[in-house]
Amino acid sequence: MLKKSKVGLVVGLWALYFVVGCASVSERFEQRKQKIDSPQSEPSKDSEVHVITSEESVGDTWLKQPQPQEPLAPPKVGLILGPGGVKAFAHTGVIKELVKAKIPIDSIIGIEWGALPAALYAENGKVHGAEWKLYKLEQKDLAKRGFFTKKLEANSINTLSEFFEKNLEKSDIGSMQVDFACPSLSIYSGTLSWQQRGSVMEALKKCMPYPPLFQPNDHWVAGAFSVDEAISRMKAAKIEVIVFVNVLSDGEPLKQDELKNSYVSAVVWQELIRHLKKSASAASYVVNVNTRNYKLLDFGSARSIFSAGEQAGEKAARELAKKYGF
Questions:
Q1: Computed over its alpha carbons, how large is the radius of gyration of the chain?
Q2: Full DSSP string of 220-244
Q3: Which residue intervals of 38-71 are DSSP H helices?
Q4: Exposed (0-12), middle (13-18) or buried (19+): which is 4, by Cβ within 10 Å?
Q5: Does the CA dihedral 251-254-260-265 come out positive or negative?
Q6: Cα(137)–Cα(120) distance, rounded to whole angstroms?
Q7: CB contact at 8 A, 105 and 287
């Protein structure tokens, strides 16, 4: 009897263990099944991941993103071509090197004979055409018109009318490719007038005459001492880089016998040389062309003067490009 009760007790314990074990396994299976079948629980606010919709990407969220910067436009460049008689031919050499270096020229002012290369370039913004046209102004052609005599005498600016008619492609300043102006001075009132509209030929006839080469055109002569006004004019026009080209170096502006016979002109030009050195400091950059070995009326040295301009222009273009990032 005792053996039977022990056997029954053992069987009962095994049965209880089996039931409890099965229940535990069943519970773990149900928990795992719930995890698989049930949707993912919502993340807490601290761990929430925000997915940007396409609508938001073009809205406020997009605006907050750093945008690519557009390249800055190059600064506006203005050239002031100073006076110098035939030495002003060097201006074209300077322009040639600036154009070669892809330095933009937005505005140009020509003073005295500097007005001629300025106008020839401003017509269509092409320097080679301007250079070729100035080559045509040979000493022999001017001699035929009475430019050179034993006694230096001023001529009428109208002697250049034929040259202007043949070589100025555009008759009106307003049709020029590059903004152009030149200063003239009234010998009656001392008023400085800017030739900035109307006939190109008439503007040059008012801006170029200056002793000893040309007589006044009516009462107008070149505004040779107007570098300060030219710089102020460009600043008012929002020109950021103002380049003054000085083709007058130290030395004798005329031959010694001409200096004695035309000493008034010699004094005027020596004072002008001093003035340009002082006024040029207000420009952003000054190009000094070495023309010491040439005279104001040295038409026979035109090609050498062009080359002097190219040498100075090459250096200027390199320094301007480095300084202003052209």
A1: 42
A2: EEE-TT-HHHHHHHHHHTT-SEEEE
A3: 54-57, 60-64
A4: exposed
A5: negative
A6: 13
A7: no
Per-residue pLDDT at 271 = 94
Exposed, middle or buried: residue 137 (CB in 10 Å: 0-12, 13-18, 19+)? middle
124-148 mean pLDDT: 72
Structure tokens at 7: 């056997």
Output the DSSP codes for 66-107: PPPPPPPPPPPEEEEE---GGGGGHHHHHHHHHHHTT----E
Among 63-67, 100-104, 116-120, 187-191, the least confident range: 63-67
Residue bearing tokens 């299976």:
29
Distance CA 186, CA 183 (A): 10
Q: Which of 128-132, 257-261, 279-283 has the lowest mean pLDDT?
A: 257-261
Q: Which comes out higher in pLDDT, residue 48 or 272?
A: 272
- C-alpha closest to that of 325 among 73, 93, 125, 70: 73
**Token pair belonging to 156:** 């009428």
CB count, 10 Å around CB of 260?
A: 10
111 residue type, one letter: I
Torsion angle (degrees, nearest 10) of CA 276, 278, 279, 281 = 120
Tokens for 67, please give them: 């945008």
Give pLDDT, residue 85. 92
Tokens at 179, concatenated: 């903004």
Residue 239 scores a pLDDT above 90:
yes
Domains, the chain, ranges and CATH? Answer: 77-324 (3.40.1090.10)
pLDDT per position as a tens digit, 56-97 = 455 555 455 666 666 678 899 999 999 999 999 999 999 999
- Confidence (pTM): 0.76
How far, in Å, CA of 93 to CA of 324, rounded?
Answer: 21
Residue 198 identity (one-letter amino acid) = G
**Arithmetic mean of pLDDT, 173-197:** 97
Contact 216, 256 (CB under 8 A): no
Position of tokens 């390199």?
Answer: 318
